[in-house]
Amino acid sequence: MTEPIELISDPGSPTQPIELIAGLGNPDREHLLTRHNAGFWFVDALAERHGGRFATERKLEGQTAEVTIGGARLRLLKPQTYMNHSGSALAKTVGYYKIPAERVLVVYDEIDFPPGRIKLRFGGGHAGHNGMRSVIESVGANLWRLRIGVGHPGRGAKDRVVGHVLRRATSAEEQVILDSIAFALDCVPLLLERGPEIAANRLNAYKGDTGPTENGGGAD
Description:
The chain is of the alpha/beta class. It has seven helices and seven strands. The radius of gyration is 16 Å and the shape is globular. The relative contact order is 0.19.
């Protein structure tokens, strides 16, 4: 019988240092370059920049890595459960390492932001994102999230959303997304040293190239 997962909580302390960054995505090769894998792109780039290497942890249903940035140890996670079940891997990881949810940052794609827009915030709902729906059901909503804009297929195009996020962006849009991720990576030392609230001021002011895109993007 599987032992129950112990979730550690530190209510009322959202300014505590981040200990774990989880990037959401789908593990198959066919999905690696799709918009829906922007969270994976972020943690892959963070690991590469700071000398980390991902390894599969079957008991955690994910791939994990560890990096040290400015003297702070940071764990990284890529759930291997597919997007819609991301919460299972995250719950097992925070339970195993005894990390309070308030010290977790989840990074994922946001269709309601145009490419080039990023936003860091604490708490909130899933806004229709199935990966975050699973995270909230498994761990709760009291965690940090970094949303990376990937654009929307257009007004009245709800039935095209799934196809949109599961396709690769145009080369121009993809470069804008990658530029926004690079900017966010530059802010990670600030995030760890001075806390997510300070980092949010810088991240949320980033505009990037949010001009016309193939299908447009929504508002905040």
